[in-house]
Amino acid sequence: MRVVDLFCGAGGLHLGFKEAGFEIKLAVDNNPIVAKTHAYNFPEIPFFTDDISELTGFELFNLIEGDEIDVLVGGPPCQGFSTIGKRVSSNIDIRTAKDSRNKLVLEYIRILNQLKPKYFVIENVKGLLTMDKGEFIKGVYKELDKTGYNYDLKLLNMADYGVPQLRERVFIIGNRLGHEINFPPPTHSEHGENGTLQWENCWDAICDLVDIDENRDFNHVPLKHTEKNIERYKLIPEGGRLPENDLPTELYRKNFGNTYKRLSRNKPALTMVPGNDAFPIHPTLHRSLTVREAARIQTFPDWMVFKGNRRQQGHQVGNAVPPLFSKILAEHIMKKLLKEET
User: Fold this and answer.
1) In DSSP terms, which residues pair with 220 in a beta bridge?
2) Which of 124, 203, 229, 319 ranks highest by number of CB atoms within 10 Å?
3) CB atoms inside a 10 Å sphere around CB 79
4) Residue 192: alpha-carbon gap to chain centroid
5) Superfamily of domain 203-304 in the CATH hierarchy
6) Is 8 a catalytic site residue?
7) Rounded CA gap, 322 and 10, in Å?
8) What is the DSSP letter of 265?
9) How confident is the model over 192-215, as pLDDT tens digits?
């Protein structure tokens, strides 16, 4: 069974599908640093690194060697969705969106129409549901309705699938086979209710890295924090945040961000969003997480090496779909496809 991954980033989606037994026919992303990461980790997977709008149907079918594609996956970037403008209308047309990044979802749908896979998966941030007061997602529905696929959307928490991280993401699953649309059943819950396991804690994923020295090739390089920030970190309790209203005068500043939160060893991590270079604060050390620690929490294997500078590495890790969930999703879809073949 064959997969094409659009806007693939570091490859969290297709890594999970590959582990589930799918063949990855093509990965697409126009980030040159991502291209280096792929070339190092997935040299066997064809990679298209130009503007996706330049990926014509002819070139697309050449790259996949004319094979039928079973599943199209991808996460069209949505940074520009909120800049669509002040106009709010139930007849919103994403084709006229002011920000070109808004139109990337149209490129996904264009390729969906060309490849005609049996299934498709779109992943995106939770904010997609409320951007432009909810009108943008209506525009996405409008375009998907034209494809003839039946589809559904659901907000999923990765912690409910064994990922040691509280991470809510939107998933749209569709197919052209007439299958009922449903999503993988949760394997975990906060307290282990209804036959599920209890949420995984982040400490089990990273505790052994405390004793590993700084290693650039392993993406395990701490940020060089200022002495003032280190003093602030010392005031953050485990599982808590900086007491902004109770700081010594010399440590005060305006606009403390979410990076001034410390993880708890007994709970899933906060969402791995790189922000301004910094992940959340380590549960026991007075520094932010390294890229490798964030990658562990994202369930990337240790053999996966992220290229670029530290900031570029962090964005690749923080923006990825956790491979553990990707594998669960892939197995869920594969069962449906196998049932169709029998």
Assistant:
1) 215
2) 124
3) 12
4) 25
5) DNA Methylase, subunit A, domain 2 (3.90.120.10)
6) no
7) 10
8) T
9) 999 999 999 999 999 999 999 999
